[in-house]
Amino acid sequence: MHPILALVLCLSFLFLFLQWKQSSRKGKLPPGPTPLPIIGNLLQLDVKNIKKSFSDLSKVYGPVFTVYFGTKPTVVLHGYEAVKEALTDMGKEFSGRAVFPVFEKLNKGRGVTFSNGNTWRETRRFSLMTLRNFGMGKRSIEYRVQEEARCLVEELRKTNASPCDPTFILSSAPCNVICSVIFQNRFDYSDQTFLSIMERFDENLKIMSSPWMQLCNAFPVLLDYFPESHNKIAKNVTQLRSFVLEKAMEHQASLDINSPRDFIDCFLIKMKQEKHHQQSNFTLENLAVTVADLFGAGTGTMSTTLRYALLLLLKYPEVTAKAQEEIECVIGRHRSPSMQDRSHMPYMDALVHEVQRYTDIIPNNLPHAVTQDIKFRNYVIPKDTTILTSLTSVLHDDKEFPNPKMFDPNHFLDDNGNFKKSDHFMAFSAGKRSCVGETLARMELFLFLTTILQNFNLKPVMDPEGIDTTSVANGLASIPPPYQLCFIPV
Questions:
Q1: Out of 11, 201, 284, 314, which could bridge 460 as a Cys pair, Cβ 3.0 to 4.6 Å?
Q2: Residue 333: CB partners within 8 Å, gap ≥ 6?
Q3: Is residue 138's pLDDT more than 60?
Q4: Which residues form the signal peptide (predicted)?
């Protein structure tokens, strides 16, 4: 190596190391493995399975520790007590959203998922209020979910009990529920626009859950030198937002401010009310990003959970049989399941909760950030420090859930077979950044799964003992392996 080049490299390493030392003095950060210059702790982390790396580190450094992704410190909270203390007891202080480089350029601080400050507060408050007004958690939205469940059954019948990959069909149902709230109308399962929307969401979720994207979030400079994956995400997001804006223009032409039809109408009305506010967050750009956020939460994670649920039911036929027995006893075969049935179906309720607990779809939550310099336990965490809350450590706590690595609905049943709530159930996160559509998601999971088991027996294409339920990605989301099954009409 040329002496001058060697000197430049040494000085660069020294400069970055001193910079890290200086930044670490800003607060008394929790302990953690010693980071290397530039790369931080990446050599000590398994980017293919970050949640396992965090579990291993917690055994050495305790429930609160610091890791460096590159030169950036991230505080990890591991275990129920630490996660609850941050998200619930100190919810305001931990309510920031950390920078997500992959979406930073695309969103520009807009929307509800990756925004902060006043934009986040106003957009979240509006979204919650509007979703509630359109029936989230009420009978009106339940009718929409029930109707979509019936359409789902008809689509599954078309498979003629032949082996099929359920990915598309299980994405269509929750996507259509969101469509009915945002656009007023559902789509036919063969509609090309509808197919395009779901394909883009599925591709983005897979890319975001890949090890490569974990590296890009740690080293944003990689996005400039190797932009292929980021460009795919950007292209998919841009096309979805163009579709939303096209729908917004159609809505504006027939808008009745006294009779809003859907989420877009409500947003357009809010825009009119605030048109004289120069700093208003209610713009067409924010509408497009917000709708994309709602789609992502309501379609991607929900369809992934449904897909995982059926895989587990194939793996554990005794669980499936017990659930179907309860469905037959409480509902029968001649009427649609309703949310009123849930209180009389403890096993099915427990099954749905166990699916979410076991699958652990968003293992490390979306990254939070502290909104100010705070004292947390014996540490001082500077403002804007990234916080990762290990939901895996809460959902797989062996003190709360005996044999947490086993899929067992009895985790949510008491000795008398009654449904048992658990404070450790944080599948939708907790606190001020919890999932906006949690109520709707709970309804969909119960009604869709109950309706499927009411109408079909699930037949695997291989011996259940040979079915592998290990996720194929553990980045942003846990993605189930591809599989096929047969839907045999009851």
A1: 314
A2: 454, 455, 490
A3: no
A4: 1-23
Q: What is the pLDDT of residue 136?
A: 59
Task: Give per-residue pLDDT as tens, 254-278.
Answer: 999 999 989 999 999 999 999 888 8
**CA distances from residue 267 to 251, 283, 444 in whole angstroms, order as listed:** 11, 9, 25
Phi and psi (nearest 5°) for 436?
Answer: -60, -35
pLDDT of residue 201: 82
Residue 478 CA to residue 471 CA, distance in Å, equals 6
The pair of structure tokens assigned to 96 is 């920031």
Query: How would you classify the pairing of strands 456-460 and 473-474?
Result: unpaired
**Tokens 């859950």, residue?**
209
Task: Map tokens 């008398």 to a residue.
Answer: 416
pLDDT in tens, 272-305: 999 888 889 999 999 999 998 888 878 888 999 9
Computed from CA positions of residues 228, 233, 236, 241, in that sequence, does the dihedral angle turn out positive or negative? negative
Calculate mean pLDDT across residues 123-135. Answer: 87
Q: Report pLDDT for 25.
A: 47
d(CA 450, CA 157): 16
Three-state DSSP string of 264-321:
HHHHHHHHHHCCCCCCCCCCHHHHHHHHHHHHHHHHHHHHHHHHHHHHHHHHCHHHHH
CB 418 within 8 A of CB 411: no
Closest CA to 353 of 388, 391, 309, 387: 309
Give 40's strand partners. Answer: 36, 69
Closest by CA to 457, choosing from 430, 431, 485, is 485
69: nearest Cα among 431, 373, 388, 337: 388
Please state whether the predicted TM-score (pTM) of the whole model is above 0.85. yes
Indicate the range of 68-77, 95-104, 383-392 predicted with least confidence: 95-104
> Can you give the length of the chain in residues?
490
